[in-house]
Amino acid sequence: MRSTPDFLEHDGCRLAYTQWGEGPPVVFIQGTGVHGGGWLPQVDALKDRFRCITFDNRGMGLSQPCGTSLSVEQMAGDTLAIMDACGIEAAHIVGHSLGGSVAQQLALTAHNRIRSLALLNSFARGADATRLTRDLLWLGIRSRIGPIRMRRRAFLKIIMPDEVLENSDCDAMEVEFASLFGHDLGVYPPVVMKQMSAMRNCDLTSRLAELKGLPTLVIGAAQDRIARPEMVRALANGIPGAKLVEFPNAGHALPIQLADEVNELLASHLEGSVV
Fold this sequence. Notes:
The protein is an alpha/beta fold. 41% of the residues lie in helices and 17% in strands. The chain has helices at residues 40-46, 72-85, 98-109, 126-130, 134-142, 148-159, 162-166, 170-181, 192-200, 229-238, 254-257, 259-273, and strands spanning 6-10, 13-20, 25-29, 51-55, 91-96, 114-120, 216-221, 243-247. The protein has an 8-stranded mixed beta sheet, sandwiched between helices. Helix 10 links the parallel strand 7 (216-221) and strand 8. Helix 2 crosses helix 3. It is globular and about 50 Å long.
């Protein structure tokens, strides 16, 4: 069992990746502003049955430097390089948000290297997710300007349902999420703007049908302010044979908010896709 980060020099970045457990390999790809440790709720549940690989996206955490530009294609290349470094011929791929777009791109680039896809709170056209609603614009401003406590709380409102926050200890939640995200919720990592640009410039809508035959699980959340339900449904509808599951009272932080439920779905999907 491995839990100490390894490093790989690739395309101008020293990528940090970590492995846990033994079994069929599963590679987890994070979204915007979250380091690889954000997958710990999933890794803890799956590492007894699967070889779990997480990594910090370039520009996040220990994977530095990002470089002058960033694209989804480049991030897919990073993922493939990590698979090569781990000696993995083919793996199950799990991606959240932007990480889901990277997973789609990876499957389109190297279809024979992918055993299955699990796309959580994700989309095929990044411009849809970066298009600001009035609500999201207001929360985005509040998450960047003002006292740190107000910024943290605004960020929580972006990724969690209002009803959940009203009935939770938000101070404790901020501490938990900061540990999983790898930074204070009131402080955006510098790479976030480049990640947002990469997401905005990615549109895989016209190519989704090419993923036919690849076991795909799409998971969404009805209260997601970023990967809104219509985007997640369009993603699932675009991939022939994809299975869609939507949680009614969950937000963009679904893999953390409802970790047990998500992990159960992932385990069933992965075990059913083992070849």
